[in-house]
Amino acid sequence: MGYQVGLQVRFPVGxxxxxxxxxxxxxxxxxxxxxxxxxxxxxxxxVALRDPSVQAMxxxxxxxxxxxxxxxxxxxxxRSYLVRYPYGTFVGFQEHPHEKxxxxxxxxxxxxxxAGRYQILAATWDWIRKVLKLKDFSPRNQDIVAVFLIxxxxxxxxxxxxxxxTAVNKLNRVWPSxxxxxxxxxxKKMASLKKxxxxxxxxxxxxxxx
Length: 210
Prior knowledge:
mainly alpha, Lysozyme, two-stranded antiparallel ribbon
């Protein structure tokens, strides 16, 4: 005896057979189209991640957000991917920790779920993970999420062409430590971040790896 495996679709009474077939085809290709869009967006992130300027911007974000300041003696150390707001760490890369922690910044209570090298919020991670079908919170996927956000904010070409200030001004609502951020938290100086960007871009352009 054979078994029919698949999706059962109920059609309203009176829908002709040929129309049912066309509807099923449309549903199938619609689902495939969504998969192609998902794959295309993931590939776009992966390609961008190979660009020296993009790699440099990721280092800038990590340094600005604090993950590279204290967690590791070298750029891209594994511990920088395990940083949790405000100054702790989490264990393992299976999942974003999804833990809200409160701390005081300039006398103001600030609660956040930020975690990882780029201090990604839990809600942001859940959204992008679903869009790109990411399986874990690994260093690679943290890099992918950061690049995805750069693309979403329309800053990718600015980063690649070295328009650093323009890129930062587009990203300062994502990363509150960037100059011009509206969240009232301490921010870094544009000049100091740009210096890091130029140094790291030269490093990666010359074949350097972290």
